[in-house]
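Lab notebook, page 48
Experiment: co-folding of the full assembly
Goal: obtain a model of how the components sit together before planning crosslinking
Operator: M.T.
Materials (sequences as entered):
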Amino acid sequence: MKAFIFDLDGIIVDTAKYHFKSWKIISKSFGFELSKNQNELLKGVSREESLDRILSWGGISIDKFEKKKYLEKKNELYKDFINNLSQMDILPGVKKLIDFAAIKGIPIALGSASKNAHQILKKLGIKSKFKVIIDGNLTSKSKPHPEVFLKGAQMLGVNPKKVIVFEDSIAGVEAANKAKMVSVAICGSGKIENARFNFNSLDDIPLEFFENVI
Ligand code: BG6
Ligand code: MG
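Observation: model returned without errors.
Model output:
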């Protein structure tokens, strides 16, 4: 049996831009400008690991109490940005794939580093479509570690080799590859080198693709 595992931020909804905006504000308060290229290296990575990377790029060292303060601040900023998310924000192609999976009996899971995943799916009105939700609260190792996807496959009861993962991040593609799953990168006009397949958008994937890919 085949299965789909969807990343959340940047795949189901364009929240990646809000993570970027929030981290930019935090980085500014450390006295430096977070670049787009640096942000690519934060995609798919947990909140804690993201802060550690930013601190190391800025050459800044703070204690764990300060870290906790900045993590909370970042999440407050982020939650303000996503406050008004609704069905309208679901990215093109998501509903088509969910419907296709339902017709074909393909179970779907969410595999995200976010601790806000349940809340976001509820705002989008599609939480019930996911048989399994693996989020940042259920994992201890950040992507590129494959834990999040392997847990998803295990909870769905499918062989990892039969899982197609939709990802927009370098770390996420690496995690899917490590889990021996089929990595499908969705990153607009860009490309993720290590992905098995690249598409501009989920909407660009012809449905026949899924018949032949595994
Ligand atoms: C991932 C995002 O999905 O979730 C990362 O790509 C983010 O940018 C991570 O840091 C954790 O999200 P949250 O919502 O728990 O801060
Ligand atoms: Mg993502």
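Interpretation: The chain has nine helices and six strands.
Next step: discuss with group before ordering constructs.
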